[in-house]
Structures are given as structure tokens and as C-alpha cells.
Amino acid sequence: MGKTIIFNWKMNPETLKEAKDILNAVKKLSQSAKQKIIIASPFVYLETLVKSKNKKIELASQDVFWQEKGSYTGEISPTMLKNMEIEWVIIGHSERRQHLNETDEMINKKVLAVLKAGLKVILCVGENSAIRKKGDKTIMDFIKKQLDKDLKNVEYSVNNLIIAYEPIWAIGTGIPCKSEDAVKIIKFVKKILNTKYKIQNTKILYGGSVNGENIVNFVKYKEIDGVLVGAASLKKEAIKNIINKFK
Ligand code: PGA
Fold first, then answer.
1. Structural domains for the chain
2. What letter does residue 143 receive in the DSSP assignment?
3. Nearest 10 degrees: CA dihedral of 234, 44, 163, 166?
4. CA-CA distance, 171 to 167, in Å (whole number)?
5. Among 167, 80, 92, 153, which Cα is nearest to 122's?
6. What's the predicted TM-score (pTM) here?
7. Fewer beta carbons under 10 A from the terminal one: N or C of the chain?
8. 75-112 per-position pLDDT tens digit
9. Does ligand 1 come within 6 angstroms of the Cβ of 172?
10. Does residue 166 carry a catalytic annotation?
11. Which of 75, 102, 166, 213 is an active site residue?
12. What is d(CA 183, CA 180) in angstroms, rounded to the nearest whole number?
């Protein structure tokens, strides 16, 4: 099974022209790519990207609301995304947990609504630096609790869920998790999914300060099914390195 690369643009770029420009760069590289490539774009660019992308590239929104329609000013529903032919939704990114006070209960509602609408979920989990300092057992307990709450009542099959292990202290800091530590947590997440949900093949990705240089540290581990890339996903040279090296 090939690897998966998610380019999460976050609240970037500032113009549609730049968005198209980055998409074109990814498109060229995607022709010969063996990996699954997913671009998570701000809502406002998705419609244009759907029309201009190629078959090798799949699109994700970076959030969603849990209701299908109605009086929820400012929100976007899973049905709207589905009708626009968006395939994936990132849910529970730590930046939303932190800045928008998203709770595991809200995340769980979003996960259930997205799966019900026939979209696929990229669920982000990961510990902060205070938890990391307490060691592996505390980290694993924390992540298990996140998974239990975020995936409550979820019945899923292997194709509609990706988990991104994103330690908060590594996101946007330029300090990635050591790849061997990421592998340890990824193996642990796989074990929980296998035992609790009887699912063998869910892809577990690593995210947090991955760039065009340090990607080589993550390539060598078969346990790391892919990477979720933030800041570097806006830089053409880094995009090229990541696609070319992470096979
Ligand atoms: P980063 O972000 O690569 O800029 O650290 C990763 C992410 O989207 O969480």
C-alpha cells in the first residue's frame, strides 16, 4: 500500500491566484507520484480547486460543522462539501482545539456527521509538551482517551479514516518529533485500532514540522503511513522534495 501525503495549507495563501499556483506545482509532481496526495485548502478555494485538480489529487476541507443545514451562521455542512465533490475533512486539528476551544465531544459529533454524509475523515490527535515531559505512559494514556472520545460510536471501515499523530509541541515549531518516537506512538495507535475496532489497515500519519529536508527521517519507517505537512506545503521546493522522497 502506498503512502499518503496531506498538504494542509491552514489559513493560507491569501489569494486564489497563489492557491492555483501551488495546486499546479503539485499537479505536475503528482503525474508520476505513487502516493495518495490530499490537499486541505481553506473553504473559499475548494470550488476552484475541484475544477482544476487532476485525478491524482484529492481535496480536504480543514473543518466542518455537524449539522446538515439550517440556522448556523458561518458554518459549512458535510452535505455542502459532499455536493462539491470534496472527499476528505480534517477534524480535530490542534489549532482548532486550541484557538476555537473545540472539545472531543464536538469533534466526535463532526466525525459522525462527516461519515454519515459519505465523506472521509482525517482525525488529528496528539499531546502537548507538558504531557510529553511526563513520558510514554502518560502520552499513550492521553492519546487513547482522545481516540475513545473522538471515535465514540463510530463504525468505520478501512477506507474512510486516516489518523494523524500530531504532537502539539512539534506543530509549527520547526522541531519535529524524533521519527523513532513517532513510530512508537503510531504503533500504539495501530494496536488500539486493531484491538478495539478490529481494523487492521487504517493509515496513521505523522505531522508536525515536516519539511523538505527532514522528510528523509520519516521515509525509512514502514510503520509511518504518511505525513501531514503544514508550513512546507506552501513552498514548491519542499513540496517537490517531500513527494520525491516519501514513497
Ligand atoms: P507544520 O503543521 O508542518 O507547519 O508544523 C503541521 C500541521 O498541519 O499540523
1. 4-246 (3.20.20.70)
2. H
3. 50
4. 7
5. 92
6. 0.97
7. N
8. 999 999 999 999 999 999 999 999 999 999 999 999 99
9. yes
10. yes
11. 166
12. 5
